[in-house]
Specification:
Length: 113
């Protein structure tokens, strides 16, 4: 119904000048705490497969979601754990800051501002 009243334009119809994206993929080692937590996720999955727990208590969607959180930063599952400087979130922050500083230097050195 919305499409009947809305004038929708897609990105290719607008012909916008969009910069190229640079994708950086880094493989990071798991911390000891993350390795232990992955084992716990595996045990939880085994209990779900063997129907030892009710779906409301634990299910594969919850386990996969916890695994995704764990991959980003272990503190998303256990806030009492220490900050891992090599977590995906921290490495991403470092990369963003590095790009920001490089960009800032280029802008100021060219007197664009």
């Amino acid at each position: 119904m919305f499409k009947e009243i809305a004038d929708i334009k897609t990105a290719d119809q607008l012909d916008l000048n969009v910069p190229e994206a640079e994708f950086i993929v880094k493989k990071l080692p798991a911390s000891d705490a993350q390795k232990d937590m992955v084992d716990e996720l595996s045990d939880r999955a085994k209990q779900v497969r063997e129907r030892l727990v009710e779906p409301e208590e634990n299910n594969m969607l919850k386990i996969v979601n916890d695994g995704r959180k764990l991959a980003l930063d272990q503190r998303l599952l256990d806030p009492t754990l220490p900050d891992d400087p090599n977590s995906k979130v921290n490495v991403c922050v470092k990369n963003v800051l590095e790009i920001y500083n490089e960009t800032k230097e280029k802008i100021y050195s060219n007197d664009i501002l």
